[in-house]
Model the fold of this input.
Amino acid sequence: MFVEPLGCWRDVRVSVQKTAIDWAHQVRALVDDPRYADVERITLVCDNLNTHDIGSLYEAFDPQEAARLAEKLEIVHTPKHGSWLNMAEVELSVLTRQAFAEPADSQEAVQARCAARASRRNASQTGIAWQFTTADARIKLEYLYPKIKK
Done:
């Protein structure tokens, strides 16, 4: 899932597995999407899954293509055990509750539900009401901040 919270946009694609190659192809589709044709940089906030890195692009594509894609990307990883800080995780949680109250019987059915829901939310310009402030982060993630001895 890709989410642009301030643009009220999301893109959901379903795959059978989560390999480095799969991730690289999803990233290429995002970079080549007309929505981002004129941007200099795309910032991806990713969890710490080992496939979410530039090396996956080089595993999937020839060096020139991988470099082209990598040049447009800034990848930021959430802190370890902090994937809940990634707004796509919030969106996935909403997707799960709204689209999968009933089980789906095939990958095609899952993709159809995800696409329909994303289309509805994109059309209605539904954003994400992110409530987590810097002050909250300093409390919740205190263990990540350096300790200054006096």
